[in-house]
């Protein structure tokens, strides 16, 4: 019994704790969920196709063997470079083979047929993405290396789409039918997310400085912003319709610049309102974190109040303020989807059109770019926060 126990303990020690969870998720996607979905047209119910039926049998066997090898690498305590390479390779191969499934399953006699990635593909993609992110964290890549890795991933996705490997998948067909609208709504989505962030930064940082300099007003301002933050997004969009419609009707020139009850104006105002609390609170927290010795030394050198603020306090508080900006940008990229409900444009237009038409791939056409934008923004701003923190440590 003791020998058996020692063997089990030794085997458990060779297993990676996170790898066990990731491997279980990947195996569920591989064997319990369809790899692709096939439908006679874009709105009828889909028929799930397992991996071994979604492509020629020899290719399916090779793919299953490869994925099982990757699962083994992730499951065991293997070198981090091997784990990273295996996860990246698995993601790349999955992306290529789901495109291959599109060509294999698409009938020649039905131009309206649709083939899309199934639950198994998305589950395995999720599992191997977790493994890749975990390996990147374990490698402790520098901020610049993480940004380069992100750029390489964007280039790989662009090469995949440019190659035509996904041309038979329904999400690409949805894009081809709406290419002009896709880029137009994309520009609007970026304008909503970054425009509201810029306004919140320009207004929120001075308010944060005011709260820091004037403690009696700090609680009232932060409490008011906290109440504003608790209003559900759809409700806030709705509450803005009436006052902005009145402004558009009664204020000369307001309608000409786009202020109306529905559309872009209420969307960007709502996003701005949601953005204020993180910017203001992080500005206050960053200024609070400035060491008292730094202030005393600056005053001892004869610095004035504005010099102390701009040369000492704000530079030292910048990493915390930038963290708030990161939170706002990622939040706004996601919340801007709701703008599609009130005619504000953005990728939410495709999401809600797809929901209304029961067209899953149209929903994905709007949702996937939003996920990608939020993911990229988080990586870039996390890197900038880390760089600014290192500069803060080196600052004399």
TrEMBL record:
Boundaries of every ABC transmembrane type-1 domain copy: 186-381
Organism annotation: Martelella mediterranea DSM 17316
GO cellular component terms, semicolon-separated: plasma membrane
UniProt similarity note: Belongs to the binding-protein-dependent transport system permease family.
Gene3D superfamilies per UniProt: MetI-like (1.10.3720.10)
Alphabetic keyword roster: Membrane, Transmembrane, Transmembrane helix, Transport
Localisation per UniProt entry: Cell membrane
BP terms from Gene Ontology: glycine betaine transport; transmembrane transport
This protein's name: Putative osmoprotectant uptake system permease protein YehY
Keyword Membrane: yes
Transmembrane segments: 18-37, 49-75, 82-106, 118-137, 144-166, 186-212, 224-245, 257-277, 333-356, 362-385
UniProt membrane topology term: Multi-pass membrane protein
Main location per the UniProt record: membrane
Database matches in SUPFAM superfamilies: MetI-like (SSF161098)
């Amino acid at each position: 019994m003791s020998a058996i126990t020692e063997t089990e303990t030794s085997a458990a020690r060779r297993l990676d704790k996170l790898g066990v969870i990731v491997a279980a998720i990947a195996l569920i996607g591989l064997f319990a969920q369809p790899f692709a979905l096939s439908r006679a047209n874009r709105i009828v119910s889909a028929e799930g196709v397992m991996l071994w039926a979604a492509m020629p049998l020899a290719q399916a066997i090779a793919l299953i063997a490869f994925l099982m090898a990757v699962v083994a690498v992730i499951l065991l305590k293997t070198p981090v470079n091997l784990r990273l390479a295996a996860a990246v390779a698995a993601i790349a191969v999955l992306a290529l083979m789901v495109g291959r499934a599109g060509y294999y399953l698409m009938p020649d006699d039905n131009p309206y047929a649709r083939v899309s990635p199934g639950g198994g593909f998305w589950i395995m993609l999720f599992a191997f993405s977790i493994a890749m992110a975990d390996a990147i964290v374990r490698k402790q890549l520098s901020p610049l290396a993480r940004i380069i890795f992100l750029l390489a991933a964007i280039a790989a996705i662009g090469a995949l789409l440019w190659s035509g490997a996904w041309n038979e998948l329904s999400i690409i067909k949805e894009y081809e039918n709406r290419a002009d609208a896709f880029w137009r709504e994309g520009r609007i989505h970026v304008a909503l997310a970054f425009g509201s962030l810029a306004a919140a930064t320009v207004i929120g940082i001075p308010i944060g400085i005011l709260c820091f300099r004037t403690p009696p007003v700090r609680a009232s301002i932060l409490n008011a912003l906290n109440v504003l933050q608790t209003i559900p997004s759809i409700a806030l969009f709705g509450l803005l319709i009436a006052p902005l419609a009145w402004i558009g009707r009664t204020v000369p020139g307001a309608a000409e610049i786009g202020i109306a009850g529905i559309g872009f104006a209420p969307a960007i105002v709502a996003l701005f309102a949601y953005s204020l609390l993180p910017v203001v609170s992080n500005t206050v927290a960053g200024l609070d974190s400035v060491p008292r010795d730094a202030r005393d030394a600056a005053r001892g050198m004869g610095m004035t109040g504005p010099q102390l603020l701009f040369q000492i306090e704000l530079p030292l508080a910048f990493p915390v303020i930038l963290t708030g900006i990161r939170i706002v940008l990622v939040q706004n990229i996601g919340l801007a989807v709701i703008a599609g409900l009130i005619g504000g444009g953005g990728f939410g237009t495709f999401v809600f059109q797809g929901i209304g038409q029961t067209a899953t791939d149209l929903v994905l056409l709007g949702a996937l770019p939003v996920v990608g934008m939020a993911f990229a923004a988080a990586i870039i701003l996390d890197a900038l926060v880390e760089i600014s923190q290192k500069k803060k440590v080196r600052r004399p």
